[in-house]
Write a structure and sequence with these properties.
The protein is an alpha+beta fold and about 130 residues long. It has one domain. The chain contains two helices and ten strands. It starts with a strand and ends in a 7-residue tail after the last strand.
Length: about 130
């Protein structure tokens, strides 16, 4: 069994936040990794819901703010809806997925977690006016 570290990074490569999940299979698809990451962050939020959510993608009816999203009211989130939104965001280049020193371009790619146990997410911000 492998352990993976999920890391959010700035565009310059600075680590912003990270957490680890143990007990994963040695090989897993990028899609499964994204969904696992989202499931874990939603579970952490749902354990003590607040108006601020720090996650990969914006929940419905939330506003983007520095380092996360502001919900209209503290509430639990549906991890499957968030995971679907994360897959859609990946498809439209909403974030980069890096495993070790390579960029993942396809969510169906198999990843060897023994060789590359760090998975980095770099959120991309659309340019204004262009």
């Amino acid at each position: 069994m492998a352990s993976v570290t999920f890391r959010d990074e700035s565009a310059s490569g600075r680590a912003l936040e990270e957490f680890s999940l143990p007990g994963l299979p040695d090989r897993i698809s990028a899609r499964e990794l994204v969904r696992l990451r989202v499931r874990e962050e939603v579970a952490r939020h749902n354990a003590a819901p607040k108006r601020h959510f720090r996650g990969l993608v914006k929940p419905a009816d939330a506003e983007a703010e520095l380092n996360g999203y502001r919900l209209r009211a503290a509430r639990k989130l549906d991890w499957e809806k968030q995971a679907d939104a994360a897959e859609a965001a990946f498809a439209r280049n909403g974030f980069l997925l890096l495993v070790g020193d390579r960029q993942i371009m396809d969510l169906d790619v198999q990843i060897d977690l023994d060789a590359d146990p760090v998975v980095s997410f770099v959120k991309l911000v659309p340019l204004v006016g262009g």
